């Protein structure tokens, strides 16, 4: 049987932690490898003069949080003997997750959901909904 590469979207939320745990407990098979996908999204308002120092501080804080998160998840993978790597990108989360999945040739994706109601999902959009309907591989959305 061909070796599977599973992509797991992680962002530090409880929902993504649940999806990561679900992958380990329910989907992982010996011989699989995992690509932990983290997407940073930075939004700057148009027409607002940015405070460069504040932005640099924000980026540094975010970088530290992501490094801590991915370090913790990588350590769990090592302890369980699951081969894997972390891919970090910047962009619109849904599009970037799909892009990483394509570049890494993942055979399926696992991600959490924020549990938005129908109205909020319609107004705010949903990353998991976007990925579910636009990815070219099977997507497992783990409910919160």
TrEMBL record:
InterPro entries: Rossmann-like_a/b/a_fold, Universal_stress_UspA, UspA. Gene3D superfamilies: HUPs. Residues 4-143 form the UspA domain. SUPFAM superfamilies: Adenine nucleotide alpha hydrolases-like. This is UspA domain-containing protein. It comes from Patella caerulea (Rayed Mediterranean limpet). Pfam families: Usp.
């Amino acid at each position: 049987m061909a070796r599977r590469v599973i992509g797991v979207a992680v962002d530090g939320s409880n929902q993504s932690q649940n999806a990561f745990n679900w992958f380990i407990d329910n989907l992982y098979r010996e011989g699989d490898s995992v690509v932990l996908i983290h997407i940073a999204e930075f939004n700057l308002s148009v027409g607002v003069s940015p405070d460069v120092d504040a932005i640099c501080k924000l980026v540094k804080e975010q970088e530290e949080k992501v490094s801590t998160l991915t370090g913790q998840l990588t350590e769990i993978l090592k302890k369980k003997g699951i081969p894997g790597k972390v891919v970090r990108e910047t962009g619109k989360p849904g599009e970037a997750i799909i892009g990483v999945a394509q570049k890494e040739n993942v055979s399926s994706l696992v991600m959490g959901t924020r549990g938005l109601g129908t109205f909020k999902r319609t107004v705010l959009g949903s990353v998991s909904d976007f990925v579910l309907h636009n990815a070219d591989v099977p997507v497992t959305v783990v409910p919160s």
